[in-house]
Amino acid sequence: MAGERTGQAVPFRLADLMKLDALWSVSTRKQDVRNLAFLHVAYSTLLRVSELARLRVRDISRAEDGRIILDVAWTKTIVQTGGLIKALSALSSRRLTKWIAAAGLAGEPDAFIFCPVHRSDKAIVNTERPMSTPALEEIFAQAWRAAGPVKPVKTNKNRYRGWSGHSARVGAAQDMAKKGIRWRKSCRKAPGKSPKR
After folding, report:
1. SS3 label, residue 159
2. What is the residue extent of each domain of the chain?
3. Amino acid 73: pLDDT
4. Phi and psi (nearest 5°) for 30?
5. CATH class of the domain at 14-178
6. Which of 17, 72, 104, 107 is the most exposed place for a label (fewest CB within 10 A)?
7. Residue 84: what pLDDT?
8. Who contacts 162 (Cβ-Cβ below 8 Å, separation ≥6)?
9. How many CA atoms lie within 13 A of 20 on its CB side?
10. CB-based burial label for 24 (10 Å; 0-12, 13-18, 19+)
11. CB pairs under 8 A, 24+ apart, for 65-73?
12. Would you list the DSSP string of 37-66?
């Protein structure tokens, strides 16, 4: 309306994820392990940052082949249908499994999956409050500094000078469109029923 256009986040594409995977998968720093797992989950699920923040260890189950299945109880647009089921790839499942082990989260079902890492390289297990949006946005900023494009990005209204919280959603959607995949919202659970996996 009135010729107003909104800015689009700089896309975080599969090639970007694989570039960071090569950089960070060899790191033993817990922050790098967490950040890589977070980016894998963000790209694979197309969830918003606020939705990723609320994922808990109890939301994880395994498919027969060992891949991780995430039970997303609530999203911005789906609040009463019982949530969504999101399946991770084998590689993304390995990266998330590595983070859970490194952080000591396996025996903490009520803990948020993505938690802060103290400068002493110890994960701060948290069951009360999820990481803030700015803290999770900082993961994208660190990723941009580590592996972002060499040439500057043309900004839209002085916004989006690098990857941000929406970048994984935008990039994954663009990758699917490029492959001709018709995207639909993930498998919704019927209330009170276990989903078929």
Report:
1. strand
2. 14-178
3. 77
4. -60, -35
5. mainly alpha
6. 107
7. 83
8. 10, 140, 141, 144, 145, 148, 153
9. 29
10. buried
11. 65/90, 66/90, 66/93, 67/93, 68/92, 68/93, 68/96, 68/97, 69/197, 70/41, 70/45, 71/189, 72/45, 72/47, 72/186
12. HHHHHHHHH---HHHHHT-BGGGEEE-TTS
H helix runs in 46-148, sequence order: 49-53, 90-103, 133-147
Chain position carrying tokens 């919280």: 165
Residue 75 has a pLDDT of 63
Measure the CA–CA gap between 17 and 40, rounded to whole angstroms.
Answer: 7
For the chain, residues with pLDDT lower than 70 are 1-7, 74-82, 150-160, 182-197
Q: What is the pLDDT of residue 81?
A: 56
Q: Which has the closest alpha carbon to 10: 143, 181, 179, 183?
A: 143
User: Would you say how long the chain is, in residues?
Assistant: 197
Q: Which candidate, 127, 129, 124, places its Cα nearest to that of 104?
A: 124
Q: Are 45 and 86 in contact (CB under 8 A)?
A: yes
Instruction: Report the alpha-carbon distance of residue 45 to residue 88 in Å, rounded.
Output: 7
Are 162 and 148 contacting, i.e. CB atoms less than 8 angstroms apart?
A: yes
Residue 38 has a CB neighbour count (10 Å cut-off) of 25
Calculated CA dihedral for residues 179, 184, 185, 186, nearest 10 degrees: -70
Q: At what angle do helices 30-45 and 90-103 cross, to 10 degrees?
A: 140
